[in-house]
Amino acid sequence: MTRSTPLNILGWSLAALLALIAIVAIFVLTFDWNRARPYINEKVSESTGRSFVIGGDLQVTWKQGLKTEPGWRRYVPRPVISAHDVRMSNPDWATAGPQLASAKRIDLAIHPLPLLQHRVVLTDLALDAPNIALQRRADGSNSWTLKDNGPSAWDVEIQRMAFGDGAIRYLDEGIALDVQAKVSSTAPDATPGDASGNAPVQKYGIAFTLGGSYRKAPVTGGGKAGAVLSLTDNNTVYPVQAHAVLGKNKASIDGTLTDPRSLSGIDLQLSLAGASMADLYPLTGLLLPETPDYATKGRLLGKKDGASWNWTYQNFKGTVGQSDLAGTLQYLSRQPRPLLRGEVTSQQLRLEDLGPTIGADSNARKQARGKAPVQPDNKALPVEQFNTAKWDALDADVKFTGKKLVRTHDIPLNDIVANIHMKDKVLSLTPLNFGMAGGDITSNITLDGRQKTIAAQAKVAARHLKIRELFPKLQSMQASFGEVYGDAALTGHGNSISAMLASANGELAATVSEGSVSQFMLELAGLNLANAVFVKIFGDKQVHLNCLASDFAVTNGQADVRRFVLDTDTAVVNITGNVNLATETLDLDVRPRTKGARIITLRTPLYAKGTFKNPDVGPQKGPLALKAGAAVALATAVTPLAALLPLINVDKAPDTDCAAVMAQANATRKAPASPATNAPAKKVSEAEIKKAQQEKK
């Protein structure tokens, strides 16, 4: 009996293993795999919950590994499964197409050794004439989520993927998007450069065209990408170029995707343009304000953080209307809301470009952007409502600095600084500061959107506004050296600027030191009411102003005059009454008193009534009738010269103590407690004003 040795045992074991491999290979090569199709179809259908069919020929061949594979693995033969006419169905409710995915032919190469570790490694996956139809319903459910069978004991890895001519359709009911892409092979382009320094970028090998609709508007576009998608290297970059027009929105990208198997990074040059930035919300989930036409271009960087993505729009430049914008913004995925942060700068902004953002856009501009007009012709205050339903879509911390803000027919603002904060549906501009007419405007504004109706607070301070710079077009103003000071502290409730002011509580105050006033100046400033009152009292001549002090108490939308004194070289004017911000109506009593006896043109107390849009200023009938009646009586009884006596003002008004009046007007005041809010706004503090002035320098 021959004794076995370890060497003999090893030899027989290797021979048995080789024989087994040979038997398996012979079986694989000679077995008619079409006989296994019914079993495969049944098992895949059962596992996925969808109908799966291999309708054509099913073959298995062998091939050697690629020469690019490392070490001995390239010599290990692997089976290549070729299946013809492969189809997987969509759910019954889908209207995008009967099949979730289908292909004229699928070739996949499997590495055999990892199967021993419960790993399915597809070294190559090639799709010929693929056709994919994806659909997402309005409730968020989709057609590509398959049956949940719990965690699998097998892991699947795809190393390389190649595409042939095919088509893809994506139907999204939630945003009314239906887009189709037709993919075709093309001659490889030259290799584009890779800015990141990673592995060489592959050549373009496929082209695609886009068509469809977005919110009933046509979608067009196209692009190109790499023909072979390598999924084995973390540093692999996949090139892509694309452009699309979705309704009034235009987008284009040009760059690379890093590690496509897990898509860990994106580096693209992104260009966007459209009728309003707010239209991007359905496509991106990013809450942006209503704007005029916009266009922007910058570098979009995406980095995967676990299951979420963080995005940076780096060094972008663009325009909104005729205003310019530049900066860097970051979008960070976090709970409970994502965060938008960064810095934005502008060399020149136009106020009319900001109109849609604050609800002060004109009806004509709304129609140009495809929005329905909402501003009534008889309303001066903006009635368009803020959409707080989307305020919890994200938090924000963005700093804006602007060199110049141009206002139509008005003097520009300069050195704008605004810190925009949004957290838990509370929007604040703290601060919102800017320079104006050689002075400074300092303000803090808060809009709390956590309730159905916005709770608003605003405090504003104006300091050292130069009269001559307020009206730079008037040559006669160059010698005027007066300054304007003002304060406002208001709270209110409402979802529009009009509604907030209609419920406002607080105070308004302003003082003007020595200067000059004329009808032309007021008309140029667009101050219709002030202009009308001025003409009634002073005519069309220029008047030297000694001082002006005004103070209003605002309660539930009604601004009552606590003090309004205007002192000039020729007269002192006192105004009483109220302005109703809810109804936009005026009810003011204007009492001019001349300095010195002089003949005047029926200078009598005036009324200022009407609306903000159509003010009505005229003489009060009672005093005017008395003077006119006395004149008629004297003319009849005595002489024509005596009839002038009632029209001669002998009630001389004393000079106003301007220093005392302005000191009193500038004294610290506190906003009254308000039934409309539990947190009345307070004036901007002098410390805040000084800080703003220092930052400006």
From TrEMBL:
Keyword Membrane among record annotations: yes
Record's keyword terms, sorted: Membrane, Transmembrane, Transmembrane helix
Record domain AsmA: where: 7-561
Bias-annotated ranges (Basic and acidic residues): 683-697
Record-linked Pfam families: AsmA
Sequence intervals crossing the membrane: 12-33
GO biological process: regulation of protein targeting to membrane
Highest taxon in the source lineage: Bacteria
Positions of the UniProt region annotated as Disordered: 356-378, 665-697
Entries under InterPro entries matching the protein: AsmA, AsmA-related
Protein name: AsmA family protein
Source organism: Janthinobacterium agaricidamnosum
